[in-house]
Amino acid sequence: MSNQIDQPFFSNKNLSWLLIIGVILVGANLRVPLTSAGALVSFIRDDFGISNALAGVITTLPLIAFALLSPFAPKIANKIGMERTIAISLILLIAGILIRSASGIGLLFTGTLLVGLAIAIGNVLIPGIIKMNFPYKIGLMTGLYAIVMNVFGALGSGLSIPIATSGNLGWRGSLVIWGGLAFITLIIWLPQLAKKYGAKKKINNQQIGGLLRSPLAWKITVFMGAQSLIFYTLITWLPTILMANGYDIHLAGWGVFIFQFASIPFTFIIPVIADKMKNQVMIALISSGLIFTGIAGLLAGFSELSILWIIMLGIGNGSAFSLSMMFFTLRTKDGYEAAELSGMAQSFGYLLAALGPVMVGGLQDMTGSWTLPLILLACVSVLMLIMGIASGKNKQISGNV
Prior knowledge:
The chain crosses the membrane at residues 17-44, 50-69, 81-99, 105-126, 138-163, 175-195, 216-239, 251-274, 281-301, 307-328, 348-364, 370-390. It is a multi-pass membrane protein. GO terms for molecular function: transmembrane transporter activity. The chain has helices at 17-28, 32-39, 41-48, 52-69, 73-80, 82-100, 105-133, 138-165, 170-189, 205-212, 215-244, 249-276, 281-300, 306-330, 335-367, 371-391. The two termini are 19 Å apart. It has 16 helices and no strands. By secondary structure, the chain is an all-alpha fold. The longest helix has 33 residues, at 335-367.
C-alpha cells in the first residue's frame, strides 16, 4: 500500500508545521463544545426553567446536525476547497458558541445547531485532509488527531463545571472560554488558504453514485454506525446502569470518566499500528470483542468487576473509533474520496448515535430492567464485529463497486 512506503516525514513539499498543528487543533475542537455543554446541562436547565426532555435537546441537536450535514460537507469542499471549508466551519463554530451563550432559549438552540453544523464539517473533512497531505504518515496523523480530540473532550467534561462555578462566570462564561480555542485554531489555520495543494477537484455524480453502490463502503458505514450508537448510548446511560448494579451516584459518575480515559491511549496507538498492517481484520476482531465482553459483563451484573468491564468498553470503543477513521483513508484512493466516504459513514453513524440513547431508554422504560437494552447493545457489537472483519480486508472502494 502506498501509505506504507518508508519516506521521511517532511519529504512532501506540501507538509508544514502549521498544517500539522492546524489539523491537531481542529481535532481539539470537535468534541469539547459538546462535552462542555453536556456537563453544564443541569445549570442551563435550572437557569431557563426547562424540562429534562427539552434540556436533552442540547446534546441531541448537534448529533442530528451531524447526520444531516455530513453527506454535503464533501460537496461543499469540492466547490471551494477543503481548506476554505474548514476555515468556514471554524467561523461557524465560534459564532455558534457565542450565540448559544447569549440570553434567550431560542439563541441557545440556534447556537447549538450552528455548533453541530460546524463540527460536522470538521468530522468529515479531516480524514480527507490527512489523506491528501500526509500520504506516508496517515496512521501517525490520524492518531494525533484522534487522541487530541478525545483528551479535549474529556477536559470539556471535567473542567466546565469548575470554570462555571469559579467567580461569576456561570455556564455562559464557561462555554465562551472554550470558544477561545476555536479562535486560536482559526488563526493557525488561515495560512492554509493561500496554499495551492488544496485545490478543488471535480467529482461527478457517477463517482458519488459508485460510492453508494459499493458494498465495502456500506460495510464501513455500518461499522462506524454501530460504534457510534454504542458510544453515545453508554455516555448517556452508563451511570444509571452502574447504579442499577449497586454503585452509588458518585462512583457511577466516575464510570463515564474511566470509560472515556481508558480509550485515549488507544485512539493514538491503533491508527499507527493499523497503518503498518497488511489488513486490519485482527484490530476489528479485538476491538469488537472487547466491547461485546464489556457489555456481557455489565449484563451479568458482577458489580465488583464493573471497573474491568468499563475499561474494556473504553479500550474497545477508542480502538474501533480510530479504526473507522483509518478505514476512510486506507480504503480510498485520494483525499476527496476519503471525504465522501467519511461523509456517508458519519451521516449514518450519527443518526444512529442520536437514536441509540432514546431507543435504549425506551426499552428500559418498557421493561423496567437493563437486561433487554444491554442485550440489544451486545447484538449491535456482534454486527460491528461482522462489518469490521469485512472492512478490515485489504481492498479499496474504487475496486469494490
